[in-house]
Amino acid sequence: MAAGKTVSWLLASALLAVAGHVFAATPDDVHCAAVKTGAKIEFQGRTLLETPDIDEPELRLINALITEQCFGQSAELMDRFVQAHPDNYHVFFVKARLHWITRSQADANVIVTTTLRNHPDFSSMKILLASMYVADRSFPEATKLLDEVEKVHPEDLWLFMGRLRIEAAVAATADTAKTLKAVMADPDFPRSARTQAMYTAQYESSGLSTEVRQDLFATGMDAGFGRDCELANMANELTLGFNNPEAAAALIEKYLHKSGACVATPMVRVLLAEAYLLEAAKIAPLPGPGNATLVRQAKEALGGDMMPVAQRVASTPSLASLIPFLKGSMDVHEPDDDGNTLICSAVISTNPAMVKAQLSAGADPNGRCGKESLVGRLLLEAADFRLSDRQLILRSLLERGARVELLKSCGDPGNGNCFETFYPILKEFDERRAQTRKAL
Fold first, then answer.
1. C-alpha triplet 114, 49, 76: angle, nearest 5°
2. Which of 191, 200, 226 is nearest to 69 (CA)?
3. pTM check: above 0.70
């Protein structure tokens, strides 16, 4: 797209943002209209620039829009640019990056490898491929590409970030943590680089203490670029990884309404309610006067609808202590985003406590779980772990009237776990029911 058209589009966006009585401009419209292309960054004695080999102003703007999650605007500008410049292969960089963020790394990789096959000296695309290698922990392959780019574009921002990520993953030091923190705190870095530094500190670093990681997380959140996605990840880690729901609740309370929205925004409130209930369960295993305040706070966090917590509990057996606090709040028929009822999720996740609770609440023991019945789903699972829990689930279902299924195939001694683990239970209940039919 021509530069004049770009200016016109930006002007139209700006007018849209201020003409509230005519247009319904959203905060995202205003935010995206204000996005600017990245400039040079002076950092620790070096000059850095994102995609230094891409000079086209339109493509640099598209790249910045992608960073700021203005995907609709970036796609529109990309289409216009391709129409105006059909032979410009630099557009494949932003196209690959958009695919990576909105679709998958595999989709983006197809674009990257095809482009590099035809244009092997395209430095920005080499950097993008190196980032994929780093994400896959294929450090020698990533380093080779970074070395090639450094010979021609030592100022490349993502060359610097790639080396920093590898350093953090292989052997992070106090200096590594200091550099990550400096990147997060520097507003001249694009959001993508600051978020990457935050993610690297949390999940890609070896040798950093929990205290250092939490300090780096706070740096990102306090700097104002951390989003609810990062908040949800950290709260979940504190709750399930460190068994510290008090810290998770305090963290969410601190940053709720202060962090930027993302796809995990609804989950933040779910995690807050979950943390309150875990605190309540530590006080007493059942709701009562001693934990009433925490139970009330949990319900208030979700506006009284506790089904999202119930769905988390169904798919997370370690949260089974919350089941007594969800009594009366679990719809046995309501599916989750994957189309699974609570009891189906509990069967899939090998959660016997939730299966039993759902059956007591009226769930159908002969209900469906995907294309199979609940019993069929359990028996056809080719897994050799938590066998005693799976036996408990089968007993719970059969005791509530589930049909005896796959008796003949499970009775084949060559049928592995099904024969050894489930056949005795199936045979027991089949004989019980035969005796009942005979007595009648």
1. 55
2. 191
3. yes
Confidence of residue 30 (pLDDT cuts 50, 70, 90): confident
240 and 273 in contact (C-beta within 8 Å)? no
pLDDT, greater one: 389 or 224: 389
Q: How many CB atoms lie within 10 A of CB 358?
A: 29
Cβ atoms 271, 252 nearer than 8 A: yes
Centre a 10 Å sphere on the Cβ of residue 367 and count the other Cβ atoms it contains.
Answer: 18
Residue 88: what residue type?
N
**pLDDT tens for each residue of 162-216:** 999 999 999 999 999 999 999 999 999 998 999 999 999 999 998 899 899 999 9
CA 202 remoteness from chain centre:
14
CA distance between the termini of the chain: 82
CA distance 405 to 414: 18
25 phi and psi angles, rounded to 5 deg: -70, 130
pLDDT computed for residue 15 by the predictor: 29
Q: What is the pLDDT of residue 296?
A: 98
Q: Would strands 41-43 and 46-48 be described as parallel, antiparallel, or unpaired? A: antiparallel
> Could you tell me the CA-to-CA distances from 295 to 64, 255, 267, 322 in Å, in that order?
44, 21, 18, 10
- Domain 35-172+181-209: CATH class, spelled out: mainly alpha
Q: Is the pLDDT of residue 423 over 60?
A: yes
Q: Of residues 350 and 264, which shows the higher confidence score? A: 350
> Are the CB atoms for 17 and 29 separated by under 8 Å?
yes
Spatial distance between the Cα atoms of 434 and 384, rounded to a whole number of angstroms: 30
Quote the tokens at residue 52: 């230094």
Domain ranges of the chain: 35-172+181-209, 336-440
Q: Which two tokens stand for residue 283?
A: 């006080």
What's the CA gap between 157 and 132, in Å, rounded?
16
